[in-house]
Design brief:
Elements: H1 2-19, E1 23-24, H2 26-29, E2 44-51, H3 60-76, E3 87-89, E4 95-97, E5 115-120, H4 131-146, E6 150-158, H5 170-176
Parallel strand pairs: 1-4, 2-5, 2-6, 3-5
Antiparallel strand pairs: 3-4
The structure holds 2-acetamido-2-deoxy-beta-D-glucopyranose (NAG) (2 copies).
The site of one 2-acetamido-2-deoxy-beta-D-glucopyranose has 3 residues, from loops.
Length: about 180
């Protein structure tokens, strides 16, 4: 009985570990304090994939630096309250916390209050993200479902499916269109 209970407990822990990847927190990448926050009502029905369109990064230090640059650009040039996306993913295979699970993003007009915006760091017109980055995004999406931030029947889209834009790049779009629950 005792053994059975601990096995069940261990399995539960494993499932949690499998479902939810490590996320580099805002304090770890050196985020600025947001100017304001609007609560995101969850679970949301959509995930929207973006690219950041600039350079790629391959190490925790350079990705943290890049995320800080993007946050500064969004806050100082676009006058957003914070970095636009809910999460960002580097070519280092790590996930960087943007606005996170519970704050409405500013990444896709008319969709922000019903979606999580995930942005791959780089320009993925010609070549898609590395496998580690793609796997990180898939695990983040599974984690969102398992923690009920994302509806079980969610729909995955690229930004270009809801707005006239090249984002998330031809190569990346060519990858995600084969992922589960994608709908243009
Ligand atoms: C992304 O890369 C493509 C092809 O290399 C280039 O034409 C485009 O200008 C780049 N976009 C940005 C925003 O850097
Ligand atoms: C999202 O915002 C629009 C108006 O901007 C509103 O019509 C819609 O009901 C909102 N949806 C949710 C899920 O809050």
């Amino acid at each position: 009985m005792m053994l059975q209970t601990s096995v069940v407990w261990l399995l539960a822990l494993c499932a949690m570990a499998l479902g939810c990847p490590h996320i580099v927190s805002r304090s770890q990448w050196g985020a600025r304090v947001p100017k304001n926050k609007v609560h995101l009502k969850t679970p949301v029905p959509y995930v929207i994939v973006h690219y950041s369109a600039g350079s790629c990064c391959f190490t925790p230090a350079s990705c943290s630096w890049l995320v800080r640059i993007i946050q500064r650009y969004h806050m100082d040039n676009w006058l957003l309250a914070d970095i636009a996306y809910n999460f960002l993913i580097g070519e280092d295979g790590r996930i960087y916390e943007g606005r996170g699970w519970r704050t409405r993003g500013a990444h896709a007009e008319n969709w922000n209050n019903k979606s999580l915006g995930i942005s791959f760091l780089g320009n993925f017109s010609k070549i898609g993200p590395r496998r580690a980055a793609l796997n990180a995004a898939k695990r983040l999406i599974q984690c969102a479902v398992s923690r009920n931030f994302l509806s079980r029947k969610y729909i995955l889209k690229g930004l270009r499916n809801v707005k006239l834009t090249r984002c998330p790049g031809n190569a990346l779009h060519g990858v995600i269109k084969w992922w589960p629950r994608f709908k243009a």
